[in-house]
Every structure is written in C-alpha cells, then in structure tokens.
Amino acid sequence: MALRRGGIAAAVPLPPRRLAATRAAAAAGAQPPGSVVRIPWALRVRLQRGAQRRQRGQGEAAAARPGKLLLRSRRPELSQPRWQTVGRWERPQLVSAGWKHRKARGDYFQLEPSQEAAPALQAPPPEARQGPSFAEMGLRPALLAGLESLSVSRPTAVQRLAIPALRRGRSALCAAETGSGKTLAYLLPLLDGLLSRPEEPVAEAAGPASPRGLVVLPSRELAAQVGAVAAALCRPAGLQVRGLTGGGAAGGLRRQLRAPPPGAAVLLGTPGALRAALRWRFLALGRLRWMVLDEADALMDESFAGPLEEILAHAPLAAGAPGPPGPDEARTQVVVVGATFPTGLSEMLEKFTDVGRFVTLTTHNLHRLPPHVQQKFVRLKGQDKLPELLQLLKEGPASGRAVLIFCNSASTVNWLGYILDDHKIKHLRLQGQMSAAARAGIFASFQKGDVSVLVCTDLASRGLDTSSVQLVVNYDFPDTLQDYLHRVGRVGRVGSKGPGAVVSFVTHRWDVDLVRKIETAARKKSGLPGMDSTINKPTPKGG
Fold first, then answer.
1. b or e along 198-237 (b: 16 or more beta carbons within 10 Å of the residue's beta carbon)?
2. Is-above-0.85 flag for pTM?
3. CB of 126 closer than 8 Å to CB of 105
4. Contacts of 350 (CB under 8 A, 6+ apart)
5. Residue 417: CATH number of its domain
6. Do the Cβ atoms of 352 and 335 come closer than 8 Å?
7. 380 and 520 co-located in one domain
C-alpha cells in the first residue's frame, strides 16, 4: 500500500508477515497485488539522462536526419527538419537551453530559409485567382503613372488588403511585417481620396501652411524616404509634397513650409518639427482630410509622445464614424501603421478619436520570423565579438554586398567606428546623438552604395528602405523581440535582390532569454510571444 505525493509513490511500512510475502513474491518475479514500486526521483532523473545520451549517440552514429532542415545546429542531434512539427504545448529541446553556462561559448544554431520569396510577394490563394491589380482596385490613372515611375507592377499582400479598405474612408490600424510595402499601402488610397475631392489651393504667403494630408514619421531619414515615394506618386497628378524636419531655428521651419511650389497638399514631418510649427503658427491643420502615424511603436517613445499628442489635438478629428463625410461635415481619416504596436497606443488615441470604430488590417505573417531569411545565433564572449565581426566584414564588402551593423548605444557605434577606422574598413555611422547637420545625407549615401558598411543604432531599423542590404549583424543583441523583428526586416524586403542573412552575437545571460523565445517560436512555427497584433480597444459601436 502506498500514498501518492506529487505524482511519486511514497512507501508506507508494511506488517512483518506481509513484508515477508512481498519479498517472496519479488524473488519469484511476481508483483504482489495492491503494491507500488517506488522509484526515487534522483534515480528517475539519472535514467532519463542515460536514455537521452543513448539517443544522442544513436543520432550521431546515424546519418543526418532526412529532408531539408528548419533549424541547423552545431550538434546534429538538435537539428530539426522542416517536416517535423512541435506541438503547441510540447516543450522542444533547445540548442540555447544551456547557453547561460560559460561552457556554451562557441555554440551556435541557424534558422534555414523555408521559402525563396518574401511572404509579401507570395501569390494570393487559388480561390482568389491572381488578386486585383492596382488598376482593378479603382486607383486613378495619375497614380498608376506614378507607380510606373517607381517600377512597381503588382500589389503586395498588405496592399491588396489595405487599399480597398482605406479608399472607403475608414480610420484603420494597419499592421504588417517589415519590408512588405506598407508605404504604398497607405499612400495610394489616401492620395486617391484627395484627387477625388479636389479643393482650391490656399495662398500661404500671408497665412500658415494648410495641408490636406499629413504623415508623421519618427526620423528625418524616414521622412526623406517616404517623401521621395510620395513625390513620385503625386507628380503626374499635380499634387505637391513637402517635408518638415527639425534641428534648426524657427526661421528654418518657416522656410521649409514656404518653399516653392506653394500650396503643398501633403506634408511629411517629424513630431518635434510639427509641434514647433504649430506653436509658432506656421502650420494649421484645419483643412486636414487624413493623417498617418507611421512606425507607431517608435512614435510612442517618451521623446515623441508629448509632441504627438499636441499634433492630434490640433487636427479636426471627428468621432470616428466610418464612411466618407457628409456634404457639410469635415472629418479626418486616421491611419496607424507599423510592424509592431506598443502598449498605451489606444489610450492616447482615445483622447482624440473613437478607436472602437477603427478597422484592423493585419497580414498572416505579422510578428512571425521571416521564413525566407537565414538567421544565425552565435554564443560568444564579449572579447570575441570584434574578431568575429572583422571576419564577417572581410567576406561581406569583398562580395559587393551592403552590411548593416546594429549596436544598442551611440557610444558603442562611435567606439566600433574607431576600431573599423584602425582596420582601414570604410564605413558610415548613424546614431541619434548626432546633430542634424551631421546626420544629413548619411543614409542616402549608404543607399546609393557609396559606402557598403553602416554602423548604427535602432534609428536605422524602423521603416527605412534597405533593399541593397544583404547582411545584418547584431553586434549587440537587441533589447526586445520587437527590436529583433525590425532589425531582421532590413533584409529580404520587397525589391531586394536576394533574401539576405542575419548574424546575431549572443553575449549576456539576458540575451539568452530572448534567444530561447526565438528558437521556440521557430521550432513551433508560430509567432513571437508577447506581441499583440491589435490595439486593445472597446467593442466596435457600428459598422
């Protein structure tokens, strides 16, 4: 007789006669009825470890597992083929399980690409045939001409999803993976709306600038990039686009807003510059018909939250009723765009508009690791990172591929830049503590291919077009899973020549915690944990 405690049988002393009978039965090879054989927990653990060692030995003796690999490990027995499926509640055996131990240094694993093209370029399902083209979506001929100048021929998944919804005038949350074409997904339908409701241009010589469309972006580099795309789309339609970035005195903002040609219909700006222009009354938002908050997670940073609230307070935001406005009703359509969304976004928006009426537009691969990009994780000592990086750079620029090197702080960017100078490796640096004059043109020069190596902080991980980049190196492992997704999204973008690769140096114990989550998501073929794809919002109040 035995009592069970925590799933382990605990022995109870037996009377002498029954104990003798039990021993006799055991000697005869039989198990007396009603008895339980007690196995100590320590013995069970030793038996399990022995079985695992035998399995590993058999795996090493046998050839590599058949089929293409999803995860390639330095230890072949921990590799996972593509066909293998890990259950939702199953705990997979991880390569990174022991990476917090010092003996794990030098270990690595690699996520192999499971498809060639980016998910955004995959054909729609067979029942949808080939999906609508830009012309079939009802876009105006002038915008189609602008797409030809950008050499864009067919819509991506997020564009097929967002363009019809935004053309109906709905305020929306548009969430899609990095590099999927979100810029065109919101610019095309919103510019089409301006063309469908033409208004007389307002003379700005005596009054503030009054744009009809506003795009708020977190950095001057991203504002310049989106501005170039918007200008190419607007040129055939006769719409004017203007950019507004800070870093100067009030006179500089006035000159940017009043630069020819007058009467710009679309304004793109950073939060600080827009707030300053509103305070000095160089800018008025009374005629605003739509507003886009691009890279929403970056805009919710502490340095941007205050200016962003002031901008929203100046915009004529209605209660969020869906559909086009009535004949005497002015309404601003709000579109929030990003690959990841922060907590607190809905609370801020609810101060100015009815978030419950927003439509949510999300793609299937949101918050998932890109399946077409090779991703390698290497456990290293801090002192070994620099030699490893130099070896990668000797292979990278020699092959003509552009390289992005991410660091977690401006001081690391500067220090690493001095080291690269000592090794005669030509490079550029980009970090937020640089002055506006120093940052001007750095990323544009990298995009043109003048220099093939850029050392940067996460300033360059949000939204920027890096289609020329073939290698991303996380010299410092990112602080969050959101930052990792943005960094890995710098390669394998729509328009890239190849899928590219990412190499991450894992140094600290807290880095290992994130790597384990990434490896688990990869083995289970699921999204990364802790990133909700929608705004926490109240129940919609109407269609």
1. eeeebebeeebbbbbbbbbbbbbbbbbbbbebbbbbbebb
2. no
3. no
4. none
5. 3.40.50.300
6. no
7. yes
